[in-house]
Amino acid sequence: MNEISQQLISQPDSLVKVIALRSLGNVLQQLGELESSQKILQQSLEIAQRLELPLEISLTEFSLGNTARSLSNIKDAIADYENAAKFAPNPLTKVQALINQLSLLVENERITEAKSLIATIQSQIPNLPSNQASIYAQINFA
Asked: Quick one: 84 exposed, middle or buried, by C-beta within 10 A (0-12, 13-18, 19+)?
């Protein structure tokens, strides 16, 4: 994995590099290498920000939120999910980030914050496209 990471980092900044780094970070998260995951995802995010790619910023913030959550870093996870929703260029990505944030708030018994987020999510549901991912998001929300 280190070799792959080094090869990616040496490449010029591009959309492909952002996606590849995010994918590597997600794999590292699944393998339980959370600190490495966070480092790689942060690199992906920085490149996406430099290249001004809102969808990639959103998706990478979402992945960073998942990694922070796995590290039990609740404050960072919530901030990452908020950023993922903020930069999301489409309603589905936004709702998915908000649902993860809601789940984290409920798990940590932050009920007042969770209640206000429910209203936000409910207002976004009508904007979702009619597809499988949207249905799964609505089921997850329910």
From this structure: buried
Is 42 within 8 Å of 65 (Cβ atoms)? Answer: no
Query: What is the rounded distance in angstroms from the CA atom of residue 49 to the CA atom of residue 61?
Result: 11
At 121-137, the pLDDT tens digits run 998 888 888 888 888 88
How far is 60 from 65, CA to CA, in rounded Å? 8
Distance CA 46, CA 39 (A): 11
Closest CA to 102 of 118, 91, 87: 118
> 89 near 58, Cβ under 8 Å?
yes
pTM of structure = 0.88
